[in-house]
Amino acid sequence: MKKGLRIVGRSVARAEALAKATGRARYTSDFKRGDMLVAKALWAKYPHALIKSIDTSAAEQLAGVAAVMTAKDLPGRNGYGIMVPDKPVIADGKTRYEGDPVALVAAVTEEIATKALELIKVEYEVLTAYDDPREAMKDDAVLIHPNHPAADKGNLLTVVKLDRGDVEKAFREADIVIENYYETPMVEHCYLEPDICIAEPDDLTGGLHLICAQQAVYATKRCLAPVFNLPHHKVRVSSPIVGGGFGGKEDSSLDVAAVAGVLALKTKKTVCFELTREEVFRTTGKRHATYIKHRMAATKEGKITAVDVETVLNKGAYTSMGGLREPAHAVTMRTAAYAAGVYAVASAKARSYSVFTNTPYSCAFRGFGVPQAIFAVECQIDELARRLNMDPIELRRKNILRDGDHTIYGQVMKESRGLGLEECMDKVRDSIGWDKPLAQSAGPVKRGRGFAVFMYGTGIPLLFEGASCFAVLNNDATLNVNIASTEMGQGVMTVMAQMAAEALGLNYEDVLVSFSDTGRAPDSGPTVGSRSTVMVGNAVLDACRQLKDRLLAFAAKPFKADPRDLAIEGGKIFVVGKPETAESLAALIAKAYASQVPLAATGVWYPPQPSFRAEDGQGEPMHAYAFGAHAIEISVDTETGVITVDRSVFACDVGKAINPAAVEGQMEGGAAQGIGWGVMEEQVMENGVMQNAAFHNYMIPTIKDLPDLESIIVEHPNELGPFGSKGIGEPPIIPAAPAIRNAVWDALGIKMNAIPLTARTVLAEIQKNGKA
Amino acid sequence: MAVDIKFILNDKPVELQVEAQEILVDTLRERLGLTGTKKACGTGDCGACTVLVDGEAVRSCILLTASVDGKKVLTIEGLGTVENPHPIQQAFVDAGAVQCGYCTPGMVLTAKALLDKCPNPTTEQIKEALAGNLCRCTGYTKIIKAVKAAAKKN
Description:
CATH class of the largest domain in chain B: Alpha Beta
CATH topology of the largest domain in chain B: Ubiquitin-like (UB roll)
Helix content of chain A: 25-40%
CATH topology of the largest domain in chain A: Aldehyde Oxidoreductase, domain 4
Strand content of chain B: 15-25%
Distance between the termini of chain B: 45 Å
Number of strands of chain B: 5
CATH superfamily of the largest domain in chain B: Beta-grasp domain
Structural class of chain A: alpha+beta
Oligomer: heterodimer
Helix content of chain B: 25-40%
Number of helices of chain A: 18
Number of strands of chain A: 28
Shape of chain A: globular
Number of domains of chain A: 3
Order of helices and strands of chain B: EEHEEEHHHHH
Number of helices of chain B: 6
Radius of gyration of chain A: 27 Å
Number of domains of chain B: 2
Shape of chain B: globular
Strand order of the largest sheet of chain B: 2-1-5-3-4
Radius of gyration of chain B: 15 Å
Largest sheet of chain A: 7 strands, mixed
Strand content of chain A: 15-25%
CATH architecture of the largest domain in chain A: 2-Layer Sandwich
Largest interface: A-B, 57 and 57 residues
């Protein structure tokens, strides 16, 4: 690791924070103008139905209506999706969930658009709607996608298979087998900024500009150009700062952009399509609900010898990040790959089934399936500790992956990429006072403590993995860095500026990062998978290195020095060890500019090519991992079932914290979402219809639901990460839910394997177990 | 039905004719161009649209504009600027309490209403005051730190 860092590793204030705190920062919705047309969608009345007829004539005649569109009116392909173009812009003959648009309207005001929707008449033939993938995968289930490339498997989209070692032998020879069935809920991202797209036809080029809050401008361009029947270079996609994404705005952004885009092309006017909160709940992507049968074999000494895991994922209505083929299984692949969690296990069998239903499509959501897989493993190992009467942290210590160990998918763990799990465990253990028993009172409130750990691979081993950027040095020694990543609150503008300033010897204030615009930057990849700091950061360093090399080579002559003896720092260039030689960097750049030295560079970086074999799930999909350990103390009121989280101590190995305050922000926010997932959040579906589509009945943690969230940063550097860093955006959500479940068992002596652990479910279990 | 109203908005008098059913957040954002007030739920549940009316934190997404007739309204734009931020705004920045920022204007104004009445709040009082403002990014830990730091500066 580099010594003497000036800017990297410091908690500099966020570049855009003051603009946000004063209300000056503009989000997509703040660019709306009165002369734009307002779009509205007529959503499917029935989540699974055949459309027998649509009559839009009355709506078309309403004054102020600019366009009414049904599937027959589209300019290009009626299908899009990150992996497979199976989601229609407008339902054509069939609805598959309540978020399918059946018709679209653009009008001069929202009131007229809403009135027009009421005038559209649709006749349906209602089909059975499936909420549960276990029902939808039965042989006699109605096919949701009769013409899908995967339709020969019924409603089963894909199966990921993973096989390693001799599982049957390991279970035969096991001293102890732990077998359980776990359930995790479908949940909504609940970013505060509702989805929105403003689509502007570009009369100069004949193209289209989509201004759209989102996480993946290049993916949007690739996915939607065929929908608009436009060549890619005429589709410009940009995103102002984003009011939260958490994975959702990799997908829901396609939904709003497709609608706004086709209406803009139809009307030749600028069109705005903004979802209401209820529409966000009912129509956008969700976290995959999972149903996990987990068997774990171990010796009586506590060594885990095998896992045998079957996971059924609720895919919802469309493929999204579900994955159809190798290696692009995305979420489904991770539920198999992480089936043994952080542990070195010689034999493993995992099968993950991704099944279509009539719920909203399941997509990326902070953690990409790893939270679900780790939930099961961390509950299993806690039970193993109880059965063996061992300390749960010591049992984990015996089994964790160490340098040279293989994961169940065959990846070799390397200390050189940073393996800081054990340090995280020890720091959390000490900080929470694990060895001191919790004080119990005589009343109805019982207290408990739980522990869980995780690992999470940096990046997305999908079709490709890598990043590009532009960097331009200006004559006043300032730098523009243009990336296509999104600023959605994680701080990408800030950490990229910190890394670029460090690399080029500039002041932090002298670097400006532009973001998420296909018109300004090359493809940095989507802003997902905890990948930006590492992938895009390396690309930024690559560009800065090129610029620095050119400047130093140019300066060698006037300085009469070898370029290797020159340094740039704080806007000056000088011979190392001779501060009296210092000259203004701006003056040097001006001379270089006049001497035909190119001052712009394209930075690129690719990690080792990921692999994941279809036959047996073996390969090297990840290049480095973040790790973490989480201890949680809870109180359960045995009269009401209410769980209160009293204390949360969380340590994460992030390789190198480029901006420690930003890392803590990710850890605290992730812990909060993990606690919400564990005790309160659930999208309740009934025959494809959401039952709790508002913030007063879909609960997320408020400030009163959370304790002070304690964060400990651990740094085991990753040789491939910029300044040693690893991705930390998503992983903090992972361990809270199993830690809470283990704490509930500690408090009540009751095992509960289905989250969320709401007051109602906890109370029912207490009463069932006669422990009230 | 149109209604004529007069009120003080960010220390300046405003006279408007609005529809009786017009909602304050829409008046602020669409009619007056004050887009710092955010609309995130439209049902009064999340607090992102919070403004102060006569010093009280209210949800502008469920408040009729006509009802602020004769009152004083403070939006985030009236509290401070990038050049001259209010101490609460600066405290949110310094504490790292701003991530995506969509909840921030509402949080800052709710914190102002609290600190005006209760200059040295306890953690419990801060939690009570901010319980109606949802944040999905921060886990609230740094928001509590920011409010405490702002209280100390006052």
